Amino acid sequence: MKSRLKKITIFSLVFLFIFGTAITTTPKQQVKADDGYNGKIFRHWCKLRSSRSKRSKVLKRLEIGTPVTVYSTSGQWRKVSVDGKTGYVLKKYVYINTDAPTLEGTTYDKGQTVAQFAQRFVGNSYVWGGTDLNRGADCSGFIGSVYRSFGYNLPRTSSELRRAGRKVSYNEKQPGDIICYNGHVAMYIGNGKIVHASNRKTGIKISPRANYRRIVCVRRVVE
Fold this sequence. Notes:
Its EC number is 3.4.-.-. The protein is an alpha+beta fold. The chain has helices spanning about 1-25, 105-120, 140-150, and strands at about 30-40, 45-50, 60, 65-75, 75-80, 85-90, 95, 130, 135, 165-170, 180, 185-190, 195-200, 205, 215-220. Strands 10-15-11-12-13-14 form a six-stranded antiparallel sheet. A hairpin with a 2-residue loop joins strand 5 (about 75-80) and strand 6 (about 85-90). The chain starts with a helix and ends with a strand.
């Protein structure tokens, strides 16, 4: 009986070690951009690595100012391509280009473009009072800075954003719309999800449910 219990205990510990480690090291979310978008290295001799680990092989050392194509952000890493090599760089060393694409097509198309642009900055920091998409922003600063990149000047605070654009019903929401809560704002990106500067712990992130808290109103800026 004791021998059997010992085997079960050992098996349980091995199971927890293998699968528990996998669970804790898997990034909570990954944002992909199939076509990539422009970024720039802002640290001397930044290391381009073969995988998302500081112990992985160094593929290339990048000088400050080196242009890169960013494909995804996962945890503390960004997947980038430079000079024909694709690898991973610590996200804090990659400046994301804030030049927004031109808004074209229908209202839905334009909103989708804004929402896709906003997702470039997922993983960046939450900074109270901040409005910088790379160095950090708070919830209203994030929304305002995204729209400012497209030429829209919106009110600064979350409460003032309840008057931005025009009001639409929650059932009419589409990508790019601003979801206003009590003391917080987010951007709807489709499929029930939002992107927002959440808090200091999680930074700018994607949340799976736009209605995770009581919604005050939904505002549409692009027409």
